[in-house]
Amino acid sequence: QISKVVAREILDSRGNPTVEVDVLLDDGALGRAAVPSGASTGTREAVELRDGDPSRYLGKGVLRAVNAVNGEIASAVLGLEASAQSEVDNVLIALDGTANKSRLGANATLGVSLAVAKAAAAAAGEPLYRFLGGPEASLLPLPLFNIVNGGAHADNPLDFQEFMVAPVGAATLADAVRMGSEVFHTLRLSLKKAGHSTAVGDEGGFAPSMSTAGEVLSFVTQAIADAGYTPGKDIAIALDPAASEFYRDGAYHYVGEGLARSMPEHVDYLAGLVASYPIVSIEDGIAQDDLAGWKLITRTLGARVQLVGDDVFCTNVSLLREGIAAGIANSILVKVNQIGTLTEMLDTAQAARAAGYSVVMSHRSGETEDTTIADLAVATGCGLIKTGSLSRSDRTAKWNQLIRIEEELGSAARYAGASSLTSRP
Ligand code: PGA
Ligand code: ZN
């Protein structure tokens, strides 16, 4: 039974305030969870409540969400069974009473929801991945390592937000991490040699002052080869252009190149990149409001490439169902804070897989030392995860947790490799 709920304001990886929640049970078990925060957010995400008080944290304080947890929410969940996750989450949803968690804040509800799950796992004496996923939970996900940052995550001219490498040919998760790290460091040397900055962006990937995706992809493909791997076979490439960020008035505005591409030209350009580089996955290649664009890219590339919907679905089961009915994308990114409770995220993931869409577990660009999503990836058996680069503790914390889970599973552990991708290279 939940006996105490305490929230506080802590810092995320960008130095902005965020919510952390402790849930204590009457048997002494403790669950602690910290809430992440996005920069390139979808317009239909659940609401992250910020104080807007300019005298604190430049308006970004989260004391309203903290007070909601310590007051109203604590009163409503005290005495509930922590192991009854969906019951607790339904209380949170009903108490908030809005469609997008705008009254209490999704940062308030999510902190409680995840801390309750972790407290229940602690009380059961089980690791979170097994408590939620059962004894069969043994699939270690294919990592998508974000080694070059652009868009809203860096101050360079790159229009595309994320350039990722995926060790599809690794034998184990620990091997995949090693291969990713080797490519990361090999890329660092080649950038340095070419006179580029090796400073990193919000997710720990390099943020060189390049202006085209092609230039980055050439460097990344070469770094894969220079590290001793075969591009495509051992290590493939994934993109998140986060296209909602540079789409306006019906066109895609490439600031780095100083030109705009019409929707069909933009899809053509992406298809050209797929033809030239070993790209197996594209997330948000199309803007959230460009339904015609989503239909065209799915028709054009959907049979070959994993097309992941992030902003367009917002981890929201209704938006996902609309997308499935419209025949767009073949994969969904799930971010717990886009929807605000663990139960709703799990429902969305399940609906996606039932429709044959793959599921990518995801961090946000603003993270903390909290590693819950590593466990959630294994618990759901989704087989895919993106949680940033191979530097900065807010990112490596998740990779390290997956290494620990793989070790703990021992001979039961299986590494997903390319098996969970919806792409058919
Ligand atoms: P965000 O970026 O956390 O800044 O939204 C991640 C993503 O777009 O996938
Ligand atoms: Zn995205």
From TrEMBL:
Any one GO biological process: glycolytic process
So what does this thing catalyse?
Answer: (2R)-2-phosphoglycerate = phosphoenolpyruvate + H2O
Keyword annotations? Cytoplasm, Glycolysis, Lyase, Magnesium, Metal-binding, Secreted
Residue numbers binding substrate: 153, 162, 283, 310, 362-365, 386
| Amino-acid positions noted as binding Mg(2+) in the UniProt annotation, renumbered to this chain | 240, 283, 310
Superkingdom of this protein's organism:
Bacteria
The record ties this protein, via CDD domains, to: enolase
Q: Which residues bind (2R)-2-phosphoglycerate?
A: 161, 335, 364-365, 386
Where in or outside the cell? Answer: Cytoplasm; Secreted; Cell surface
Query: In the record's cofactor note, how is the cofactor described as bound?
Result: Mg(2+) is required for catalysis and for stabilizing the dimer. Binds a second Mg(2+) ion via substrate during catalysis.
Q: Does the keyword Lyase apply?
A: yes
- All copies of domain Enolase N-terminal, residue ranges: 2-132
Which metal ions or organic cofactors does this protein require, according to UniProt?
Mg(2+)
A GO term for molecular function = phosphopyruvate hydratase activity
> Which Enzyme Commission number(s) are on file for it?
4.2.1.11
Query: Which positions fall inside the Enolase C-terminal TIM barrel domain?
Result: 137-423
Q: Pathway it acts in?
A: Carbohydrate degradation; glycolysis; pyruvate from D-glyceraldehyde 3-phosphate: step 4/5
Tell me which InterPro entries the record gives.
Enolase (IPR000941), Enolase-like_C_sf (IPR036849), Enolase-like_N (IPR029017), Enolase_C (IPR020810), Enolase_N (IPR020811)
Pfam families, from UniProt? Enolase_C, Enolase_N
Job of this protein: Catalyzes the reversible conversion of 2-phosphoglycerate (2-PG) into phosphoenolpyruvate (PEP). It is essential for the degradation of carbohydrates via glycolysis.
Return the similarity comment. Belongs to the enolase family.
Protein name, per record:
Enolase
- Source organism (scientific name): Rhizocola hellebori
For this protein's source organism, the top of the classification is:
Bacteria, Bacillati, Actinomycetota, Actinomycetes, Micromonosporales
